[in-house]
Amino acid sequence: MKKKWIGTCIGGRYRIESMLGQGGMSHVYLAEDMKLKGKKWAVKGIYPSEEETMTFMEEAEMLAKLHHPQLPQLVDYFTTDDGTGFLVMDYIQGPTLQDLFEGNGREFPLVKMVDIAFQLCDLFHYLHTFQPCPIIYRDLKPSNIMINEQSQVRLIDFGVARQFKKGKQADTMQMGTIGFAAPEQFMGLQTDARSDLYSLGAMLYYLLSGGQFAYMTQKPLEQIKPKLPDALTSTVRLLLQENPQHRCQSAMEVKMRLRSIYPDQTNMTENMHHTSQLPPDKLIVIGGLFSGVGSTFTAISLARILNAIHIPNALIEQPTIEPDLYMLLYGDMKAPKDYRFAVHLITAQEKCLSSSASWDNGLSTWVPLHPDGYHDAWLPADSFKLLHTIKKPIILWDVSTHWEHPSVRELCHSADEIIVVIDASPGKCNRPSSRAHFERFNSYRQRGKRVHYVANGCLPGQLEKEWAESLPAPPLCTLPELPRSKVMRAVWNGECIQDHPEVLAQLNYALSPLLKEILPRNSMSLSGKKKTNPSIFSKLMKRGS
């Protein structure tokens, strides 16, 4: 290719004016549209390879389906007689991130770096959850990112993007830029979403270190820049793990890890006008080691305790499980008359949750399944769509026993806390399925996730000690045993037993070790209100003293 195309007309309408850039496999040209006078396009020419032309055409058709305001729109594609493939895309004018970085003395304000990382996480989430096949970008670097006047990130080069094909052992061609590309891109292995996340970590390292490459320095970022927030340096370190299994597993996990250093949303919106959505302050996944152990009861109990101490929260029922929450909360009597189930609204692309009344009980918002269940496929991307529509500081997500479902695994990768409810029964805890769950929970812990065990029921004396010692970690606390007559009376009256003051006090006391672990230190400020009155618990404890 090279300069032989300059001055020629290709595809019957695109006159090549000049070269914009080049790489090992391709060249990018500025072209004028001969039909739409004055219209400029970026035309990327890709060298013929050993792959069949059909592969190029399939990828081009895939890229043409992308519709995102921060991604270049592919408007045309074709091949020439010599087999060269051409992609015709939006021509985006403006400085690249590399240009801005160099022009600013290889320094960037931390607030801007975090904002760029957040926007890239949103873009990767869109690409990695694209249907019918995820799209792997594979060439993230500062020169492939443009920043407009509104500080909005745009990716400008999609020439080496590929569809992820599950089960394939290796990419057909190894592509990427040394210093930013993941190790597997040069080792003949298949790339996936985690390859893009490695590149994100490598790019952050480069920008935050003043232009140094992690693979060359072999130093943790915190040694080069000691004053950076721990949440940032630890995330970069995790992203740069050589083994993909040891990295962050999704773009949303990266976003959740970084959000503690994210500046005030109002100021950021005024200064940068970006559209990145903030995740909740805390995502807590709750489930049981086996069926019937009481995970939903525990989730409702935590929601009502949070309500009592003035912390807004939401409880979401995992769409793939057997419906239970609606009935337990007496939805036929207590749900709003115009209530519409959020899960169904999320998967109906043309509808929005804002058009439906939320089901609020004080500061708790209930997000149950329809009593008939949800029978369509539920994807990890659907979970994050739902997660970002629930505007509550703390979100509890009840997954029952569906730990192996892909959407639940994705949630666990992104969760701040994972709560596992177990029965004080050695036999049940030693089941093969239970042991497999314990191995998964242990892997989460090894990757820095906080996993807490809560016992439902207890064993007498020495038996309880021996049982606790047989677990991967001892239970933090034990749920109180409530009189069956009291429970049945509440059911008969259509009441949530957790709202009985004396029961709520019992639950708060029993679960206090867990609450100390999972509640943020500034939890009282999350509600946006000053706590002027003593809580229900302090009143009850005074009565009993």
TrEMBL record:
Entry's EC annotation: 2.7.11.1
Class of this enzyme: transferase
MF terms (GO), sorted A to Z: kinase activity
This protein's UniProt keywords: ATP-binding, Kinase, Nucleotide-binding, Serine/threonine-protein kinase, Transferase
Catalytic activity: L-threonyl-[protein] + ATP = O-phospho-L-threonyl-[protein] + ADP + H(+); L-seryl-[protein] + ATP = O-phospho-L-seryl-[protein] + ADP + H(+)
Keyword Kinase annotated: yes
SMART domains for this protein: S_TKc (SM00220)
Binding-site positions, ATP: K44
Residue ranges of domain Protein kinase in the record: 14-262
CDD domains the record matches: STKc_PknB_like
Keyword Aminoacyl-tRNA synthetase: no
InterPro entries: Kinase-like_dom_sf, P-loop_NTPase, Prot_kinase_dom, Protein_kinase_ATP_BS, Ser/Thr_kinase_AS
Pfam family, one: Pkinase
The protein's name: non-specific serine/threonine protein kinase
Protein species of origin: Paenibacillus planticolens
